[in-house]
Specification:
Blueprint lengths: L13 E3 L2 E8 L1 H15 L10 E8 L2 E5 L2 H5 L2 H6 L2 E6 L7 H5 L4 E8 L2 H7 L5 H6 L1 E4 L13 E4 L9 H12 L10 E4 L2 H20 L2 H10 L7 H11 L5
Parallel strand pairs: 5-6, 5-8, 6-7, 8-9
Antiparallel strand pairs: 1-2, 2-3, 3-4
S-adenosylmethionine (SAM) binds next to strand 4, strand 5 and strand 6.
């Protein structure tokens, strides 16, 4: 099991420009409500395994970009488990993944690319000295960054939430960074919650393909009634056949 550090034990609430670190409490009442809402909205419990207690959150321009709750930890597990050699991470956030990564003897070098100068100025001084010295921090937008070396593991963790639109961005980043991977047989490149984003993206593509195949009168009817009309089976079948080639 991967050992994460409780961010309340290492970080102090503070604000630099657009970046703000703050502490919050998860109570049993709040957790129960969040679990129920998650099951109702997503069909599963996003907060599985979550404990009550105090946690840290990071806001950038007043938008919550991350916390160190159980979901954030669980969804980074695979990357940390597979990380080895030279590692490139996009998105410093609170440095949650840096703590377990720095403990892995298989990891020989870490570069973090972060686009917010304020996040860097807020978080880096609060990290333990060994991280400040051993990890390379570059300020840049990962879509523009030009690495000067190759990496065994590349991980994109720049999105504040799971979203269908993240998926095309992930694919763009994979294309851009492919030439910067080493030839190591266990090389790894991934992005935070990529499977969930892919699934949502596929649903969106499928839905818009369905819309395009509707007869104009049905489309009008749908807009008028502001609801989804029953799509006849033959149209659904055509969509399925067309979308059969849509594999990633
Ligand atoms: C979810 S947090 C990263 C979490 C982090 N990996 C951790 O372990 O704490 C997202 C971070 O990505 C940064 N970011 C957003 N877009 C970016 C981009 N295009 N290039 C580089 N960093 C970006 C945000 O400023 C934020 O600090």
């Amino acid at each position: 099991m991967i050992k994460y550090t409780n961010m309340v034990d290492v970080l102090t609430p503070d604000k630099v420009g657009e970046a703000e670190l703050y502490e919050f409490e998860i109570t049993i009442d709040g957790l129960t409500r969040a679990k129920l809402t998650s099951v109702r909205n997503h069909g599963h419990d996003e907060f599985e395994g979550q404990q009550v207690g105090r946690f840290m959150g990071l806001k950038v321009s007043n938008t919550l970009v991350m916390t160190d709750t159980e979901m954030e930890r669980r969804t980074n597990d695979e990357f940390i488990r597979r990380a080895h050699g030279r590692v490139l991470i996009a998105g410093l956030g609170m440095g949650v993944v840096l703590f377990p990564l720095c403990e892995k003897k298989e990891v020989t070098h870490i570069t973090v690319v972060e686009k917010s100068r304020d996040v860097l100025a807020l978080v880096i001084p609060q990290l333990p000295p060994y991280m400040r010295e051993d990890v390379r921090f570059d300020i840049a937008d990962i879509f523009e960054y030009e690495p000067d070396t190759q990496y065994d593991c590349i991980y994109f963790d720049i999105w504040p939430s799971v979203n269908s639109d993240n998926y095309p961005e992930m694919k763009r980043l994979f294309d851009k960074y492919k030439p910067h991977q080493t030839a190591h047989p266990d090389r790894y490149m991934s992005a935070w919650r990529i499977n969930d984003c892919r699934e949502q993206h596929q649903e969106d593509v499928f839905y818009s393909a369905q819309l395009k195949l509707l007869r104009p009168d049905m489309y009008e009817q749908m807009l008028e009634q502001d609801k989804v009309v029953e799509v006849p089976n033959d149209i659904l079948e055509s969509v399925r056949i067309l979308m059969g080639g849509y594999i990633d």
